[in-house]
Design brief:
Elements: H1 12-33, E1 45-59, E2 71-74, E3 80-98, E4 103-125, E5 131-133, E6 136-137, E7 143-148, E8 151-164
Antiparallel strand pairs: 1-4, 1-8, 2-3, 2-7, 3-4, 4-5, 5-6, 7-8
């Protein structure tokens, strides 16, 4: 009697199925153990904050385009990150060396202004004391591209302070 044993051949479909199962298992492990993990005792609390953003060397045609009460939107996420409570426009300057006097001097940069925007917002303070407004983490020097109804620019956070809860 001739009994033929069927040999199982590992083919491309089997390889794809095994890789798909492994990728799914890896994704589940990542989501369960690493993504958004909150350790025991770690909490966030809501807090009110005022922060100042500065846009340097902006074209002077934008003077007056930001108004008190304008909503400030994070361009990256589209989320509201506060409301304008103060705006200051100053002429941009650059430094040169005056050889006759032997000192550095500030000169007005023609057609350019610096814009300081003070924003009031509600944010979350984590257990490390880091305050976030939406996905924007407040820190001196952190950058954000924000927009208001008539203006959009990349700015640097130059100051922030908690105002209460």
């Amino acid at each position: 009697m001739n009994e033929k044993k069927k040999k199982y051949r590992f083919n491309l479909v089997d390889v794809i199925l095994v890789l798909l199962i492994l990728a799914s298992a890896a994704a589940v492990v990542y989501l369960v153990f690493f993504e958004g993990k909150v350790t025991e005792g770690e909490t966030s609390e809501q807090t009110d904050v005022i922060y100042t953003l500065k846009a340097a060397d902006t074209d002077s045609v934008f003077r007056g385009k930001i108004n008190i009460g304008d909503e400030v939107i994070d361009k990256k996420t589209g989320n509201k990150v506060g409301e304008v409570i103060d705006v200051q426009y100053t002429d941009s300057t650059y430094k040169t060396y005056n050889a006759e006097r032997g000192e550095a001097q500030n000169n007005a940069y023609p057609g350019k202004i610096d814009i300081s925007v003070t924003v009031s917002a509600s944010g979350m303070k984590d257990s490390d004391g880091v305050i976030s407004v939406g996905s924007f983490k407040l820190a001196i020097g952190s950058r954000i591209v924000f927009r208001t109804p008539l203006f959009e620019a990349e700015c640097i956070c130059v100051s922030y302070s908690e105002t209460g809860k």
